[in-house]
Amino acid sequence: MTNSAPEIEDADCILVTGSNTSENHPLISSRILRAKRKGAKLIVVEPRRIHLARFADVYARQKPGTDVAWLNGLVHIILAEGWEDREFIAARTEGIARLREQVAGYPPARVEAITGISPAQLREIARLYASAARASIVYAMGITQHTHGTDNVLALANLAMLTGNIGKRSSGVNPLRGQNNVQGACDMGGLPNVLSGYQPVADPKVREKFEQAWGIEAAGGGSGSLPAKPGLTVVEMANAAAEGAVKGMYIMAENPILSDPDVNHAREALQNLEFLVVQDIFLTETAALADVVLPGSSFAERDGTVTSTDRSVQRMRRAIDPPGAARADWEIVCDVANRVQRNTQHATRGWNYTSPSQIMDEIARLTPSYGGMSYERLEREWLRWPCRSLDDPGTEFLHQGQFTRGRGLFTPVDYREPAEKIDEQYPFILTTGRIVFHYHTGTMTRRSPSLEREVHAGFVELNPDDAQQRGIRDGEMVTVASRRGKIEIKAQVTPTVSRGVVFIPFHFAESAANVLTTRALDPVAKIPEYKVCAVSVDRCQHPEVVMKCQV
Amino acid sequence: MNYRTVLTICPYCGCGCGMYLPVLDGCLGRPIPDKTHPLSQGRLCIKGWSAHEHVASKDRLTKPLVKTQGEFKEVGWDAALDLVAARLLKIREQHGPDSLAFLCSAKCTNEENFLLQKFARAVIGTNNVDHCARL
Amino acid sequence: MNTPEVEIRERVRQLLDDDRLPGVLGLRAEHGHVGPHVFNSADDLTALVLEPRYGMALVCQAILDGSPKGRLGVVARGCDERALIEMAKLGQVDLARLVLIGLACSEQQARECMCTRPYPRRIDVGEKVAGVAPGDDARVQQLLAQDVQARLAFWQSEFNRCIKCYGCRNVCPVCICDACVLEEMCWVERGKIPPELPFHLIRAYHIADKCILCGACESACPVDIPLTTLYALSQARLKELFDYEPGLDVTQKSPLTTTLEETPLHEL
């Protein structure tokens, strides 16, 4: 997030798109609702009529996968009406001429034809957003999980820069991250192209710094240097495993067998490995395929830091010991590293940590944006990165005064269709996501009685008209099929989705939404297109009616 | 009677809400929302309120497991770790470092993620490191 | 004069050192945050603070339930004491095992909480100030000025924000059922947000004769539903109709519950 999360409540216009905030980030939606009660205008643009839509001043329902078109349409209207922030554009951006030229191709009528959003609604959204003093964009995977996810994000950035709505308190572009440390896992270099703090592996200076710190040259053995070529992303790993190029995997507390797209393929890929080691707290669907399973720690047993979606670095503290012989995950990784090194001449420094605090000190030394962090400071200060030195109080909101690259660059992007199209055989668009009662692949929440009591099985949301046409009743079991597989699942007939669109939460292994999803990736971000694939929905041969009132 | 409250962060979404975990004679109780947390201000969603439940699940893994002939057998840490180290090295020797791939975790700490990518890059020698950020 | 904080610390020290109590429950400032904590030694009392206000009664209950005997001290405001008394009536806590250090709230605190009775029966620290009469609450007055339809519409729109965290129930000291009807399918549909109206109405009438207006529910609500306003209105009614206030005396029974022995059917 460019803003800190609490700032949202002082925005005076909030555009929520691609985020079912009240279900997936409840305590941030709490701030959105507060802003609304303080008088802010709320705009929700979502294919599903989500909970927040009830409170929106404008709720617009776009066809899934058409975001670039309506975002360009907004830019078109704002420029046509002269609602742009000329001062901000002149002082802080470049490339407006190219953007102006490109969005000329997105008049409201064309946008309506692509997205289904009416010209009147589009104009109202443009007016509300552009006229606000502090407008904030809130988005999540509904924007990014597309083959044009990068384009969607660029289109949002264009909109924010055009109206000067970035680099200010309560005004910015705010992606909401879905997991308690997904921000931190990225920050720490849990990505194939960057080391910690997004320092590119391809940069020789960066590699040299890490090589020296880790004593790689001194060790002499091995290659004598850090690898320079960016590695594979998660979906590419599965593809490489299926092809036999990747032979072994080490998976720490992740469950790709449910979270990858096209999980039948992911399963085959992992089964094709020579060796798989999984470190987790439960025997997940993925761990069940492993050769070795290492028992790690739950959150209540964890000591360390996590970085929340607004860049706050926070301490987790061990409340109880892990059960049985289970151990802290950092200790396990250290032990594996030490054993590997013992068997080679290739020795790197620094595998004898005695506490997470020491590891943070190493992170701070090597990672400019975490340079001023320490456990000692975190005991008394609230720190959001970037926090570069010991006297740096951290950063509440980003891009004040200037952008990372200097001037903000408007990047024209064109609407492209999603990778998979509906046809006669697969006439519905499937979009996937989460519900408030469960989390990701359900490893933890499905073992939580209070949450299982609320929702204990998957379901497919189906529009009443579509249901009637197919003779499907609410609560009936249906078969949902795509070009990759099929599942049986309970139908939930609801106007939450529009005609032709169905929604399935991906938490449930018994009716795994990701059996259906496509492996098509965004060419830049390599993110799979979970939000659009083509499926069919039909009654099961012997539909089992699920009773609604069981006590 | 030994009652403690331990300040920590909810394990679920990226909001990062604050909670105290009450521990009475070694048993974890229902979280107490942290009223002094800047974002969550003493509030949680249903997942946060239930965060202690999975911790005590009977399904928790308590010993390292090694699969032989399709069946998992419980082993000691030394046996499991030696096997992991030996197999990773063997694959690297035979097929090179890029034949290995590592998944960090959005549920683990910064320190744990930093170490796993350091292990992959510095010790094994591959940039095949990712996690489920995109998923 | 010493601050209430310093006076409370001294009382806690006395209980630990002189009266040999094994622990006193209060609030501790640590890691830059504040939360409930059992102080076992007079050495760490500098960390004892009084703000923000956390409900202490449920923590007391958890501790007493977890240890079959022994006494516990607790820093108790008026609402904490009323909660404990009401819980004692319901068989939830044994008051004989608790030693209360009575803390009276300031005028400002009373106003912040819209508290009708911002002091415990015995005040060890602080000065007794008058409570806020239910009619003093602007929110309540605004509502009472409207007709029933408008009030219903107001509450519907407030309840629409609910994301069913159950926080209001979880922090409620007098919500005591073993099996919660809010979780039963025949009353409230499972897995839906916002939950239907019965979710809130069931809770309101379950605590209608027990609510001690501590405000814990409202401060735990992630979507700021003004729950204390709702319950204050029903408490005002209870007072008006039966001259009854929950949480004042363990021997006082609720006028809404009775047994056939006390009130045989023919007399109704």
Description:
The complex is a heterotrimer of chains A (about 550), B (about 140) and C (about 270). Chain A is about 30% helix and about 15% strand. The longest helix of chain A has 15 residues, at about 65-80. The two termini of chain A are about 45 Å apart. Chain B is about 30% helix and about 25% strand. Chain B has helices at about 45-50, 75-95, 110-125; strands spanning about 5-10, 20-25, 25-30, 30-35, 65-70, 70-75, 100-105, 130. Chain B has 3 helices and 8 strands; from the N terminus they run ββββαββαβαβ. In chain B, strands 1, 2, 3 and 4 form a 4-stranded antiparallel β-sheet that branches. Helices cover about 35% and strands about 10% of the residues of chain C. Chain C is globular. The interface of A and C includes residues 22 and 54 of A. Strand 9 of chain A pairs parallel with strand 7 of chain B.
Question: What descriptive keywords fit this protein?
Answer:
heterotrimer, A: 551 residues, alpha/beta, Dimethylsulfoxide Reductase, domain 2, Rossmann fold, five-stranded parallel sheet, 20 helices, B: 135 residues, alpha+beta, two-stranded antiparallel ribbon, 28% helix, extended
Please tell me the overall pLDDT of chain B: 96
Instruction: Write down the domain tally of chain B.
Output: 3
- SS strand fraction of chain C: 5-15%
Order of helices and strands of chain B: EEEEHEEHEHE
The CATH class of the largest domain in chain B, by name, is Mainly Beta
- The global form of chain C is globular
Poorly predicted tracts of residues of chain C: none
What is the CA-atom radius of gyration of chain B, in angstroms?
20 Å
List the total number of helices of chain B: 3
